[in-house]
Structures are given as structure tokens and as C-alpha cells.
Design goal:
Two copies of one chain form a homodimer. The first copy, chain A, is α/β, with parallel strands linked by helices. Chain A contains twelve helices and twelve strands. In chain A, helix 1 runs antiparallel to helix 8 (240-255).
């Protein structure tokens, strides 16, 4: 007896897109190649690697040389934050309370190296106050970092404006665009950022692979020094298979982004309206503008880990908070920062372009009952 | 008209072993999973990840919890060297002139943070003087790092003894075992190391993936902080496919290591003897004990990049030095450290268990002619 699973945790990860797998196959199944070798096998691998970089650069409207391949999204964030700060003289860095653990971890690493950290709070909707951001900038601010869209509640920050303010104060501006990727425009010129981090597996590329856009001329101290790969910004034998799969996945995601956005927003809104109507004392965390693919909900008095476990038994995979704090259902620091709901009581439901109305309607049946039962016990 | 290529640059990279690809397939082709998610999909991925870790730990005779998965060999070296040093109070670190660029790069990163670096020289055979190593240890030595086997000339260092000396002086000892993997025993207890770095693609696992053994109780500052994955030692969504492929490749390499060693050593010795006999003014760089799978040769007056390019046209892929200094045929720092041969005149020929006598005999025909012609011009 197999149960059809309803997976609604796509913000945690998306399966490898078929276009990505097909692009990777020749490199997984073929003969030996090292893109840094000078012989024919090496040159062919190098050409494939640079073609992948070019295709990714086209989506970001950047130069090919501005794309650094890394071993994942967290590494991209760490490379940008530690690497940009270390290359500048100021010893102050600026961030926000609702950033991803990878960003907060990199900020802590800077604190241990003697940097002063300012962590801005957000309002009850999850929004950062732009004036407070400007006021927190100092003459010795090396770097500010604010995520493009929040991975738990989906709120979108005014990146262009924050980058502009940073530049007026001669600070570098980094954005973690990992949750935004596949949904929001990644035009780095329009966003005015100095660096932007992506994780391939969040838009249907392979796991263990990420990339960092770094604006030309921006000094960066590498996290992994050594063999000079990635123009000295990240050493190690290049993963041509992953780069090629990432390019294919990114193109596939953006080729259909308008239709996908309309589809997931319609289903997400149907889900939200249904749950708010059916479940007393329920609320949506975070407000517009926000990502179309996810919703974060609190059901007063109901622990999210228990609710998620209950839904799991009913065949529905959702997440209490984010999967990115490894295997632990700790209270969400994002919900805590809003100050409006119990941080242990928020669940995230996230959709994919292939999510169906039938799946959403099943969730609309199951959650109200599960909440009622949990509230009774 | 396709030419059958003779690839003899397996020290640069080995193709993905069929056992690795088959192990990875379910994770590449299957539905979404994030090993840090708490629902059923996440728990299944976590179980597969930990099974892979257990299988790898068995080869290293370590505990499962001592294996940290990373984004590659260079990252493993950087994590160990910067991470072990930063967790200790001493500000002196000790290394060797013939280390891989990833190690030397990490040492430079420490130098920029105020550490004092001692880089020991080697003799004309590539051997480190154990007494000189002991004499260079100081009361404030935080870390010593010496590679298990050299990636260019194959010389094997007395790791157990160096680790012992380091511990007598309360310093941590790291070894880069990337070139040794698949050939030499990786028993970390016998080696007495505190940490040991591996790159999966060097023994038939996937590219973009590595691992670091870190002895239990050894403090380590993470390079990529954040979500708490890998017990806080390396943040980022776990790459279950790569971990599973790496476990399968490592097991496959060691299941046949005795037979493989005998095979490649016999062919390597045949190649060396033949070339030394046929080519005047030729020499082998590095002496026993050394890896069985590679040879490094100098042909006096012949630039290695020109010779490698010539062989490439004849269908033979070999490397002038290492591929690990990205795409640049720079003079080898390893050969320079020996002081016996022109560092621009050394080529590395490296074999796999599936290399044939026919391939070796073809090389024995082609190289003497190529050297003669290059010497004439």
C-alpha cells in the first residue's frame, strides 16, 4: 500500500530538473576530464564550463567573468560576506535579523575577527525600515547584506534602494538571492548589488553547487585559496557537470517564470484564504511584496513541529520554519523577529510550478482537522 | 576519422566510476529531498547520507561523526588548515615546499592573518628531513601539515612519525591525502593524524565533493558557518547524491587496491625503464617510497608544455606538472624544490587500473621521437 505523497516543501529543495540532468549526463557518464588540464580533454571541459557560465551570466545580465562557481549557497554567502569585508578597511558590517543562517553565521565569523556587527530589526510584517538602514550606515561600514526575499516568509526587500544607500556610504552591498531565484528577476545591474548568492538546488539544479555574482572590480578575499580556479576566487577542480546542470535549470526556471508565478500564486492564495477562513486564530506571517510560491502560517497555540509531524503521517510534507537549520525544529528566528506570533507555531508551505489544485485541496481538508485535534490535546 | 585517445592524466582526475554513478542515480532522478528536513522525504535522505558516511568511515577506520563532507579537496584542506589553526592559540604553522597549491594557499591565508609560517625544504629526491621537521616545531606551533603522497612526483611522507612529533609538541597535524587516496591505506588511527583531506573525483567519485576526517574532540572553526549541518563544521544543504557516489567509489577503489597497485606499478615501471633507456639525458623525479600510479620525468632541455602539447596532437593526454594550478603551464614548484631539474621540463604520466600495456607501448614509441624533434628545434 503506497500512499501518494504531497510534497509542499519546495522552498527546502526542488528535485533536479530533467533539463539539468540531461545536460549533466555526458559529464557523469563520459570519460575523464579536468577543466584545468591543457590537453584536448581538458580544453573540451573548459569550453563546456565557460558556456555554462555564459548562459548563467545571461540570466543575471552580468559578465561571464563576474560569475564564481562555489560548493553551495551557504558557501556563496560566506565567500561574499567574509570575502568582501576582508578586502576592505572598515570594520563595521550591517545586516538584518531575518537573514538566513548562512548570512548570520558569516556575520558571527566576522564578529570573532573583531568586526562590529549591527543587526537591524524588522517590523511586524517582516519589512526592514529603509531609513533605519540608512541611519545605521557608518563611515567605517565595509559591507551591508540584506536578503532579496526571505526564505521563510517570502517578504521582498527593496534591494536597489539599499544597494544605492550602501554605495553612497562607500560600503559594499551583498544580497542572498537564494529564495528569490526562480521567481524574481535577477538582473544584477537593476539590483545594483556588488554580489549576489544563489544555490543551484533551489531552482532545480544539483545540490552541492552554488554561485556568486561579484561585480567586476570588486575586491574579494577567497575562502578556498589555492590553484587559481575561478580567477583566484575559489580553488578546486571545477565541477563541469554541476555548472552545466545549473545553467540548464536556471534557464528552464526563467523560461516559464511568468506562467509559474501566476500558477503558484493562484494556488497559494487559494490555500491561504481557505485556511484563514476554516481555522480560527490563524494568521499569515509576512506581507506583500512577497514571493508567490510560499506561505507562512501560524495557528495560535499549535506547535509547528507537532503539526508538521501530523501532516507527514497524513502524507503531506511541509516544514516548521526552514530546513536550513539542520534537522532541528528550533523556534524560527524569523518569526521571532516579527514579534507577532509564537516562533514555535509557524509552518511554511511552499509550492512548485507542478503543484496541483488537487494537492492544495487535500491540504485544505487535512490542516483544519489536524489543528483542531492538536488544540484539543 | 576518430582517433583513439590515450588518457594518462588520471592524477588530474578519474572518470566517475560506474558504481558511483549507479549509487547516485536514485538521488539525481528521484523526487525532492533535503536531508535536513524532518518529514519522511528528509529522513530517508538523512538515512542515505549517514549510511554513506558510515561506509566511508569504515574505509578510514574512523567514527562516522569524524567525517565532514565538503565541496572538494581544496576546501577540505582550507577547512583543516585555517580551521584547526584558528581554534588553537599558537600563531606558528609548519609546512613543506612541495605541498599542493590548496595547502600553500591556506598557509598564505594564515600569514595574512598574522601567523608565522615555516616552509621546510625537501632533498633532491623529494623527501622531507624528519629531524629538520622536529627542529622546526616551536612551543607556539598550532599546526603542521605535510601531504601523505605528493601529487606531482608521488613521494610518500612518513606521516605517522610526523604526526607523532607534532603531538609531542602539542601541535595539530593535518595531511592532504588527496593524491594518496585509492592507493595507500587511509587508516587514520595508524596514520595518527588529526585531520585528513580527500577529494572524491580523484578516486572515481563525483567532482565538487570532498571530505575531511577530523579526529573526535579536535576543535575546528568552520569555513562555511550557518545552518549547523555536518555538526556545525560545514553549513549547506547536504549533497546526498555525491556522498553516496563517493562512498561507492572509495569502496570500489579499495576493494581492488592490491591488484590495481600491482598492475599500474608494473606498467609504470615498464614505461620508466623504457624511457630512461631510449631517451638520453632523461631522469625520474622523486624516489621511493612513492605512489605506484605515476611517474614524473624530465628530458633535459625539453619544455614540458611543448612536449605535452606535442603528445596531445599524437592522441596522448599527459600533464606538465599538475592540473591543479588552473590551466596554466607554470614551472612546477615541486620540481623547483628538488633543485635537480628544470622545473619547466617535467611531465607527469599517471595511470589507472584500466590502463593497458598497449597504451604504454604506444607512449614508449611516441615520446622518444617527440623529445628528439623538440631537441632539434
Amino acid at each position: 500500500m503506497t500512499q501518494t505523497r504531497i510534497y509542499l516543501d519546495y522552498a527546502a529543495t526542488v528535485p533536479l530538473r530533467v533539463q539539468a540532468l540531461e545536460a549533466m549526463r555526458p559529464f557523469l557518464e563520459g570519460p575523464a576530464y579536468n577543466a584545468s588540464s591543457l590537453h584536448r580533454e581538458g580544453r573540451a571541459a573548459r569550453a563546456a564550463l565557460e558556456e555554462a557560465r555564459e548562459r548563467i551570466a545571461r540570466v543575471l545580465r552580468s559578465k561571464r567573468s563576474e560569475i564564481v562557481f562555489t560548493g553551495g549557497g551557504s558557501e556563496s554567502d560566506a565567500l561574499a560576506i567574509v570575502g568582501l569585508a576582508a578586502a576592505r578597511s572598515g570594520k563595521h558590517v550591517l545586516s538584518c535579523a531575518t537573514e538566513h543562517a548562512a548570512v548570520l553565521g558569516a556575520m558571527n565569523a566576522l564578529a570573532e575577527r573583531g568586526y562590529e556587527i549591527t543587526t537591524l530589526s524588522v517590523d511586524r510584517h517582516g519589512a526592514l525600515d529603509v531609513d533605519a538602514f540608512a541611519a545605521a550606515m557608518r563611515d567605517d561600514t565595509a559591507l551591508a547584506t540584506v536578503m532579496y526575499a526571505n526564505n521563510e516568509i517570502g517578504t521582498i526587500a527593496p534591494i536597489e534602494r539599499l544597494a544605492e544607500i550602501s554605495h553612497e556610504r562607500n560600503a559594499a552591498f551583498h544580497t542572498d538571492a537564494i529564495a528569490a531565484a526562480g521567481w524574481l528577476p535577477l538582473d544584477v545591474g537593476a539590483l545594483r548589488v556588488d554580489s549576489l548568492a544563489l544555490a543551484a538546488h533551489k531552482f532545480g539544479g544539483p545540490k552541492g553547487f552554488g554561485l556568486l555574482y561579484v561585480r567586476e572590480g570588486t575586491p574579494l578575499v577567497p575562502l578556498v585559496p589555492g590553484g587559481g580556479q575561478e580567477r583566484g576566487r575559489r580553488a578546486g577542480t571545477e565541477d563541469v557537470a554541476a555548472a552545466t546542470g545549473t545553467a540548464a535549470a536556471l534557464e528552464a526556471a526563467y523560461a516559464e517564470v511568468e506562467r509559474s508565478t501566476e500558477h503558484v500564486r493562484r494556488l497559494r492564495d487559494r490555500l491561504e484564504r481557505g485556511l484563514l477562513a476554516k481555522v480560527p486564530l490563524s494568521r499569515v506571517n509576512g506581507s506583500e511584496p512577497r514571493l508567490p510560491d510560499l506561505t507562512n502560517l501560524s495557528f495560535s497555540g499549535v506547535r509547528a513541529d507537532l503539526l508538521a509531524a501530523r501532516l507527514d503521517l497524513e502524507g503531506i510534507a511541509v516544514s516548521p520554519g526552514s530546513a536550513c537549520t539542520s534537522g532541528v525544529a528550533a523556534p524560527s528566528h524569523v518569526i521571532a523577529a516579527l514579534g507577532t506570533a509564537d516562533p514555535s507555531a509557524a509552518i511554511r508551505i511552499s509550492l512548485a510550478p507542478w503543484t496541483t489544485e488537487i494537492e492544495i485541496d487535500r491540504v485544505l481538508q487535512v490542516i483544519p482537522n489536524a489543528v483542531s485535534e492538536l488544540r484539543r490535546t
